[in-house]
Design a protein that fits this description.
Length: 141
């Protein structure tokens, strides 16, 4: 396993997390008033899920020799099964996958109020926990 590859993916997650955090740290009326804020939060969340999934796939392949995983949500389920992340973090990351899918596949139905609320209420905190749990696991291997 390449520590450099893991760190690159973790850095991508942290960078997008910082951007998303800046969007939800503003008050709701300021956030919703400017379309650039809404699109920035959407993209940051998509990038978080993409990078976290890539990292999960990399760990599953390199450490556990798992070559095939059926979809984004399964990556987090397998990470839980193999003790890389906790069940709580795995479940919350799967919720973020659903939010990502809504943004990517049904953009005309995206509710920016919901995205703001979910990211602010727990979505971004779980990403931080995901990073911490992966770092802890990797440091033991």
């Amino acid at each position: 396993m390449s520590a450099e590859r893991v760190e690159i993916l973790l850095a991508e997650i942290r960078d997008s997390l910082e951007i998303a955090r800046s969007m939800v740290d503003m008050d709701y009326s300021s956030f919703i008033r400017d379309v650039r804020n809404r699109y920035t939060l959407r993209l940051a969340l998509v990038e978080i899920v993409e990078s976290a999934t890539s990292l999960g796939l990399y760990l599953l392949r390199e450490i556990f020799n798992i070559k095939k995983v059926e979809g984004y949500s399964q990556v987090f389920k397998k990470l839980v099964e193999h003790g890389v992340i906790s069940p709580e973090v795995g479940e919350e990351m799967r919720r973020l996958v659903k939010l990502r899918n809504l943004i990517i596949h049904r953009y005309w139905e995206v509710d920016d109020s919901r995205i703001y609320r979910e990211a602010r209420d727990s979505g971004l905190d779980v990403v931080k926990k995901f990073v911490e749990e992966v770092e802890e696991y990797v440091s033991r291997t």
